[in-house]
Write a structure and sequence with these properties.
Number of helices: 6
Distance between the termini: 28 Å
Shape: globular
Oligomer: single chain
Number of strands: 6
Length: 186
């Protein structure tokens, strides 16, 4: 399913589909430029809370192969507190789909993605990796990666999470900042 169709499905489930005017026409070319234009429509028509609520339900790589190491970690450490799981996560979880984590003093959880070379961070998104001009990727789009992150962390830590903020993005900052998502533990 294309990201735009996934967003349409979530908007319908959340009762937002009929209240807004979006072009959900499926295109053979779910190209970055089309997705960026669609996300800009969302930015103008919806509140930040609505956008985050929609985007946190998106995300790629929710398949069994990707999730298997996270579920194995969750089973092994199920009796540990969230604080203990976050500490063990860095040392014990073996997965390429593994953001850095920080449990904040206010009880929120920060997740960070970022890799780079020559002082420039790169976007981890397969779709935006094809975009010619990353500086113009709206932060709202990065909520899709936040959705991927939320899904994996819920599997790993055994808690419900809510995406409360997309703090920064390599795609949105032209590689100057890493991707950072802030989650509330529910």
């Amino acid at each position: 399913m294309s990201i735009i169709k996934g967003i349409e499905k979530t908007m319908r489930e959340q009762g937002l589909r009929d209240e807004t005017q979006f072009d959900f026409t499926e295109s053979e070319e779910d190209q970055p430029e089309r997705i960026i234009a669609f996300i800009r429509q969302m930015d103008q028509a919806l509140s930040e809370e609505q956008r985050l609520s929609i985007m946190e339900e998106q995300g790629c790589s929710k398949d069994d192969k990707t999730v298997a190491p996270h579920r194995a970690f969750a089973r092994k450490y199920r009796r540990k507190s969230v604080e203990e799981k976050v500490r063990l996560y860095t040392k014990k979880l073996r997965s390429p789909h593994k953001p850095n984590l920080q449990l904040n003093s206010d009880g929120t959880l920060s997740a960070y993605w970022g890799f780079g070379d020559a002082g420039k961070l790169h976007c981890v998104c397969g779709i935006m990796g094809e975009a010619s001009n990353h500086e113009h990727v709206p932060l709202t789009f990065c909520g899709c990666c936040g959705g991927h992150t939320k899904f994996l962390l819920q599997c790993t830590l055994g808690v419900d999470l809510k995406l409360v903020k997309i703090v920064s993005s390599a795609a949105n900052s032209g590689g100057a900042q890493r991707c950072e998502f802030l989650f509330e533990l529910c």
